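Entry:
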Amino acid sequence: MKTPSHWEVSEEALWADCKVFKVFRERNRHPQDGREGDFFVAHAPAWVTCVCVTEDGNFLVEQQYRYGVRDLSWELPGGVVEPGEDPLEAGPREVIEETGYAGDPPILLGKLSANPAIFNNFCSIVLIKNCRKVAETSLDENEEILVREVSPEELLAMARDGRVHHSIMVAAIGEVFLKCPELFGK
């Protein structure tokens, strides 16, 4: 079986501007056999998700309402990487805004694509150790966030039993569990 080809984008047009992302209709052409097709791709900014470990070994989680699923969601701190901003700058900025915590210099653990079939962006996974409360939160107008510290065992249980159901958060927890098992006593 041969390796799939990189299709060529021959045409691109804005289809819808949805504020937090833009949808483009992209005409793609297969480089070898000439097949063509229209595909709709959401262009979104880069994201960062932060795995924050407190000085006493707990993890920061936050609960907020998510309009897409119309329900509350337990997540790790994070958000949009601003244009020209490095994920290692964006991560600590988002953490202090959302939780009021700060810690050691961030460590990049990896980069994930949320849904490469329809989104063009990536989410960087950042680890911040020795976090402690240093400020009040600075939330956006429509944000309400409950911040908790949970043990390593509880964080894994939350991912296992579905309390953490956001796929990027589950992947970030898995990433830190695989790359830093010592944080879980392993």
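The chain has two domains: 8-43, 47-184.
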